[in-house]
């Protein structure tokens, strides 16, 4: 009966076991997992654009090869995630359609422009750093295919983060102009990186239920604090200043205090009115339309192979 199924599901979650595609699950659980994984997949794919912008202008062949590989990794992450969400019966074409018609979200962070090559380094350091903070605990997410996809993604993500840090270290050892470029990029990306973790817990409609279902393992504010604590000493090593006058160690809490995030900006960017939202979605839509012939050819090929 439905009641037995629910009990079995609750016990599986309670014992920290995984929910697998063929298991019974409450409709709300399925909907939440589909939503989160789809938004995550879209973020990886849209996230190729800000850095892709610098592939043709990377300063050396080595930097260009690294950046190409990194952007390809993001495509791979998107593909594992779309595959994970397909295990729940979602259709990838339909999800893409929702993305390019603005009906499904992707991370706010990718709506900011990459103005100089230092932005490539700062995305690696801060944006990928925030992504790791958020995603390492998702390796223990209760939905099996999601958790398993996260393991490989996190390994690659931590490589990306070191890549960014190494790039910035190199620039910080360069000319005063290069150091200024790094500081300027840090000033522009710091606050948007903190917004990646989502709204404050008190205003997060999904956190409590997602924590109870163990889809999420920590709240938005917990992970944001963890990210701040980890970034401050790294900024010191780099020799950059984080743009927040209120940032200081609080011995009683054992954490860094930090200033108020501009939640109005966050809401504006999430609702489609950030600096690059229109451009990002238009580019994705164009790439999808330009690729129509590939999908048609692949489908025709598959049909012929199965009928033979
Ligand atoms: N950008 C865009 N939308 C956001 C962001 C953000 N930074 N933060 C929260 N939201 C959205 C949520 O998706 C949710 O959307 P809904 O209208 O579909 O419900 C809404 O704002 C309310 O937020 P929450 O209740 O806090 O939502 P949730 O529990 O899903 O938590 C979070 C948001 C933390 C982003 C979670 O979904 C998550 O951990 N996702 C996996 C990681 C991920 O997607 N990373 C993408 C960027 S990293 C990268 O790709 C390199």
TrEMBL record:
One GO CC term on file: cytosol
- Could you tell me the Gene Ontology terms of the biological process aspect for this record? phenylacetate catabolic process
Alphabetized NCBIfam families for the sequence: PA_CoA_Oxy1 (TIGR02156)
* Record GO terms (molecular function): phenylacetyl-CoA 1,2-epoxidase activity
Q: Which organism is it from?
A: Amycolatopsis taiwanensis
Q: Which domain of life is it from?
A: Bacteria
Gene3D superfamilies for this protein: 1.20.1260.10
Protein name, UniProt field: Phenylacetate-CoA oxygenase subunit PaaA
Transmembrane segments in this chain: where? none
PANTHER family named among the record's database cross-references: 1,2-PHENYLACETYL-COA EPOXIDASE, SUBUNIT A, PHENYLACETIC ACID DEGRADATION PROTEIN PAA
């Amino acid at each position: 009966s439905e009641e037995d199924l629910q009990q079995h599901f609750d016990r599986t979650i309670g014992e920290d076991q995984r929910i697998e595609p063929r298991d019974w699950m409450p409709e709300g659980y399925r909907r939440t997992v589909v939503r989160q994984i789809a938004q995550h997949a879209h973020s990886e794919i849209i996230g190729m654009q800000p850095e892709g912008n610098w592939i043709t202008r990377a300063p050396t062949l080595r930097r260009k090869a690294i950046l190409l590989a990194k952007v390809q990794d993001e495509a791979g992450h998107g593909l594992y995630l779309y595959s994970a969400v397909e295990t729940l019966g979602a259709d990838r074409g339909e999800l893409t359609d929702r993305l390019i018609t603005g009906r499904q979200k992707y991370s706010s962070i990718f709506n900011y422009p990459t103005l100089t090559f230092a932005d490539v380094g700062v995305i690696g350091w801060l944006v990928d750093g925030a992504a790791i903070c958020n995603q390492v605990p998702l390796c223990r997410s209760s939905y099996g295919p999601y958790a398993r996809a996260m393991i490989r993604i996190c390994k690659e993500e931590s490589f990306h983060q070191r890549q960014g840090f190494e790039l910035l270290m190199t620039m910080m050892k360069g000319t005063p102009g290069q150091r200024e470029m790094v500081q300027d990029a840090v000033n522009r990306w710091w606050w948007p990186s903190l917004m990646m973790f989502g709204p404050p817990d008190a205003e997060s409609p999904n956190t409590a239920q997602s924590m109870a279902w163990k889809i999420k393992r920590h709240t938005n504010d917990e992970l944001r604090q963890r990210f701040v604590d980890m970034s401050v000493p790294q900024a010191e090593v780099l020799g950059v200043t984080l743009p927040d006058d209120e940032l200081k160690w609080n011995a009683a809490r054992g954490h860094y205090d930090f200033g108020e995030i501009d939640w109005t900006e966050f809401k504006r960017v999430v609702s489609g009115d950030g600096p690059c939202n229109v451009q990002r979605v238009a580019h994705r839509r164009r790439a999808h339309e330009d690729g129509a012939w590939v999908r048609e050819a692949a489908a025709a090929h598959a049909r012929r192979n199965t009928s033979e």
